[in-house]
Amino acid sequence: MWLLDFRPMPEANHNRQVATWLLACCVLVFMMVVLGGVTRLTGSGLSMAEWRPIMGAIPPLSDAEWQRVFEIYQQTPEFKLVNSHMGVDDFKGIFWLEYLHRLLGRVIGIAFAVPLAWFAIRGAIKPRQLPWYLFLLALGGAQAFIGKIMVASGQVDAPQVSHFKLTAHLGAAFLVYALMFWTALNLIFKPSGATNHRGYRWAVAVTVLVSITVLSGGFVAGLDAGRIYNMFPLMGEGLVPPGLMALEPAWRNPFYNLTTVQFDHRVLAITTLILAVVAWFRLGPDLPARARLPRHGLLVAVLAQVTLGIMTLLYVVPTTLAAAHQAVALVLLTIALYLAHSLRKIPM
After folding, report:
1. Distance CA 124, CA 127 (A)
2. Strand partners, 195
3. Rounded Cα gap, residues 242 and 253, in angstroms
4. Who contacts 81 (Cβ-Cβ below 8 Å, separation ≥6)?
5. For position 1, what pLDDT does the model report?
6. What is the Cα–Cα distance from 296 to 278, expressed in whole angstroms?
C-alpha cells in the first residue's frame, strides 16, 4: 500500500497530490470559519472556560464531569451577568458548539501537520520548499493562539471578547485560507508566460478591498454594531448618520464608535460592489479561458454578499443570515483570488 511506501514519489504526482491536500485543508478552514461564526452568534464562544490543548479534545463523559465544567463556567462574567438562570442541561446547549469548534481546530492542525511530514519524507515537498509550509503551519498555530487570548478577553470583567482580537482571529483564518489556496493554485497551474494580463490589477484591487471589508466586518461583529440602524440605505434620517464622529479624540471613532464602525462597513461593502462591477466591464472579452467563469462568478458572489449583508441588517442579525454572510465573504475572496491567479503570468 502507498501509505506504507517510503520511496520517493514520482515527480509527476507531486504537485497534484500536494495541491489536493492543501485544497482539502482549505475546505476544513472554510468549515471552521462558518462554525466559528455560528458559535459567536449563538453565544457559545465563552462556554468553555478551560483551555486544555490535549485533554480538551475529550468532552465531559459523566454527570460529575459536566458538573465540574459547569462550576468553572459559573465563575465567568458571562454566567454571572447573562446566563445566571442556566442549569447544567442549559449549559450543555452552548457548550457543544464551542467544543466542536475547538475540536475542528485540532483536526485541522493534524490534517496539515501529518501529511506535511509525509510529503516531506517522500520528496513531494523539497527541502527548499519546506520553510514555506512550516510558515503556514506556524500561522495556523498563531491563529489558534489568537483564539485563545480572544476568549480569555471575554472572561475577565465583561462577557464580551475584544473586537480587536476577534478581528485578528478572523483575519488570520482568512489569511491562512488564502495562502493555502494560492499555493495550491501555483501547484496546479504553472505560469505559462512572463506578463500579467491587463485585468490582473483589477482582480488584485478587488481582492484587497474584499479583505479590508472582511476585517471591517470583524469590527461590526465584535462590537455588535449590526444591531443599530437596522435599515438600508438610510442610517436614521439620512445616508450619513448623526454621531459619526462623536468620540474624542477623533481617531477613536473608526475603532470604538458603533455608528462609525457600521457606516465604514457599509461604505466598504458598496465600494467593493462598485469596483467588482467596474472590473467585470473592464476585463472584457480577451480573457484567458480559465478567467472567464470567475469573472462572472465574482459579480454573482459580490451581489449575493451585499444582499445578505442588507438582509442581515434589516432582520437584526439572525444567526442563519449572519452565518451565511460570513461564509459568502470567504467564497467571494476565493473567487477573487482565483480570478487574480488566472490573469497572472499568461502568454500575451
Report:
1. 10
2. 346
3. 13
4. 158, 159
5. 36
6. 12
166 Cβ contact list (under 8 Å, min separation 6): 40, 150, 218, 221, 222
Report the distance separating Cα 330 and Cα 307, nearest Å. 15
Q: Which amino acid, one-letter code, is at 195? A: T
Q: How far apart, in whole angstroms, are the C-alpha atoms of residue 121 and residue 119?
A: 5
For the segment 167-210, what is each residue's pLDDT rounded down to a tens digit?
A: 999 999 999 999 999 999 999 998 777 788 889 999 999 999 99
pLDDT in tens, 304-324: 999 999 999 999 999 999 999
Separation in Å, CA 252 to CA 160, 169, 213, 255, 259: 19, 21, 19, 5, 12
Mean pLDDT over all residues of the chain?
91
Q: Which three cell numbers stand for residue 335?
A: 473567487
Helix, strand, coil % in the chain, rounded to nearest 5: 70, 0, 30
DSSP assignment of 262-297 equals HHHHHHHHHHHHHHHHHHHHHH-S---HHHHHHHHH
Sign (positive or negative) of CA dihedral 119, 123, 125, 126: positive
